[in-house]
Amino acid sequence: MRYDDSDRARELARRARTLMDEVVLPIERELAGGVSVSEGTVAELRAAARDRDVYAPQLPIEYGGMGVDFRDALPVFEEAGRSPLGPVAMRVDAPDEGNMHLLELAGDELQKETYLEPLVAGELRSGFSMTEPMQGAGSDPKLIETTARKEGDEWVIDGHKWWTTQGIEADVLFVLARTNEDVHPYEGCSIFIVPTEANGVDIVRNVPHTGGITRGVSHAEIVYDGVRVPEEHLLGERDRGFGHAQERLGPARLTHCMRYSGMARRALEIAKAYLDARDGFGSRLSAKQSLRHRIADAETQLHVARTAIRDAADRISAGDRARVPVSMCKVFVASVVQDAIDLAVQCCGANGIGRDLPLSEFYESVRQFRIVDGADEVHRRVIARHAFEDLEEAELESLTRFGDPVGRRG
What we know:
Blueprint: H1 7-30, H2 39-51, H3 70-80, H4 86-90, H5 96-106, H6 109-121, E1 126-129, E2 147-151, E3 154-165, E4 172-178, E5 189-195, E6 201-206, E7 219-230, E8 234-235, H7 241-277, E9 279-280, E10 283-284, H8 289-317, H9 323-347, H10 350-353, H11 359-366, H12 376-387
Parallel strand pairs: 1-4
Antiparallel strand pairs: 2-3, 3-7, 4-5, 5-8, 6-7, 9-10
């Protein structure tokens, strides 16, 4: 399929595809099933991405990126998503990718120098600490219980978070906390930069979870017990934390969509190759009409998903928040990708659930996509609210009402 990507985007995608085919996929295939990649190999992958000029394309040149427009960088995310190692190689990996974007948008120059530049270089790792255990903030972030109070020139943070992706490995955490009890939570929360070595940061455990084997990224439970950070660790404006978080999450949701659509593409490539190499019941499996039709449906759905992502990205690049199109993408792409990977597993039979192929890890990883960055139900709520605005009541003028027979209407 050919999309309305710019020449620069196509060239970046070509270089990213070459990196994937020549470096990333061979290294992934050499890893034994169930083994996580070493930090030495990560450094090797990143060096290869720099050599091919596809390292951190989405970030400004002055902080170590390539300064590529968001829309033009998206195809790189898609190529990277073909392997769990692709995003970390090209420095388009979550959660660092979203946190770097947050620092770019809301950070002051000192914060960017201290944290953004080392993050882009891969010298630091980060976590976004927002989700809380029951009955705290989850799909409804207004339920946030973590607080930050001002004492002199310091902020004191108390709270309990979990599902902080990469929290175990992180050097720095971006913590959302309530800073004003007298206003709506959307107007009374702030984001703080908290080094994991700060006193009172208790990283309790890595929450057991599905997926993420090859990269080995954690989801941490963290208690903040009287954590003190200086005033200059407030990120962005006081009490505008939710606004800053939304600035981070909008593009991050689309980059998630691109990474996962790349995963679905690879899953279907594996499935098609397997079907064409496997005999069963008198012919190649690739000749079975039912399987061919299911593959055709998956290819069609994935094409529609990739088109929708680009439409939403065009709107964001034009300065629109594109909240409804992004929510539509998040719900639709998550479902399409999950179905495509499930089909690929089924097509490959026992090899689909084994660890020799990456499909079983894809299958475990993709299920989280319908929950992370907003559950399906949250995004459907956004879409439905928009759908029921500005209703056209004139469309109902011809309806017969109770007590109003047709004959009375003249």
